[in-house]
Branched-chain amino acid transport system substrate-binding protein (Bradyrhizobium shewense), 402 residues
Amino acid sequence: MRCLGVVLAGALMWASSARADDAPIKIGVMNDMSSVYAVAGGRETVEAVRMAIDDAGPVLGKKAELIFADHQNKPDVGSAIVRRWYDVEGVDAVVDVPNSAVAFAVQSLAKEKKKISLFVGALSSDVTGPKCDNYTTQWAVDTYSLANVMGAAVLKRGGNRWFFLGADYVFGRALVRDTSAVIEANGGKVLGAVYAPLNTSDFSSFLLQAQPTNPNVIGLANSSDDTVNSIKQAVEFGLTSNGATFAAYVLFLEHVQSISLKAAQGLLLANPFYWDLNDQTRAWSKRFEEKIGHPPDWDPAMSYSAVFHYLKAVNAAGSRDADAVAAKMRELPVNDFTTKDGKVRIDGRVLRNLYLLQVKKPEESKGKWDLYNVVATVPGDEAFRPLQDGGCPLVKAGSAKP
């Protein structure tokens, strides 16, 4: 009787495993759907991922499935959701995850469970540096590339005395760290930095600390609504009356609309995507706009790119096994409407072009969403951190070629 019980238990375990192996690939979109990072991401990114799933077609013979959740910008909430996704829902890959503190919690759990992380909104360069692993890839900008491209561009235009207003969590501090290194290496000076909590409405006490230092650049190491409010209040306080300019790192199309072209004109941005770059970006953006009502920003576009490449790698590997898929993701070039012959490095960093954009003057704009001029195209191997400089354990271990 005991033997029969063991046999039955084994059969049930085998059946459960077989069902899991036979189930459709399942992707979970996790991001901010109700707060500061919901603009240009949130449910718009969910729709972009749905488009990627549709365009990819059958994966291991079945259409991939999609679920999504709001992490509320809380690491414990994000971690709890993802644990349930892995243990109960059968999720194979998690995509987006803006807020680096949440991303680190997800990354740790994904590594433990051997699941794929496709980070788009998580911008700390530590994701593919000291915290790198086989299962995590980083698809958009990061704090190093933002600092590198933006810092160099502003310095070239004479901005050599910087004061930072940063977000008081991992992303903001990493961005100040990385930009300060670029500034000081090129003869500029960092006059100081203050950090405000996420989703701050009144920046007056922080901005007042910048005034006595007389900067010619105010580095806004925050994002989204925090950046918009920082700019508006800095102008009100007269911080730009002496000719000081802003370096805004993460600003979306809707934010520029909110600020107005008159107030934002001349502002520089470093983005991995702009809807009006070429015929391919315009064609996909038209499809997106038909669903959402306006062109996409880079978070939905990069999330599409990440998921499309992941699903292609699953088919190429012939398996949902995370180790096999991760290897295929690094082996295959990244090709879609956003990128031609991009590369996923051993550390998980995706190398693709970045674009230095400048907000147009009001008289230059030909329509509501015609907001940027492309100032320069920066190749991925110039924009992103050199492989050997990131401190990634995979690189140190020499487990694969760069």
Summary: DSSP finds 15 helices and 15 strands in the chain. The chain has a mean pLDDT of 92. The longest strand covers residues 189-196.
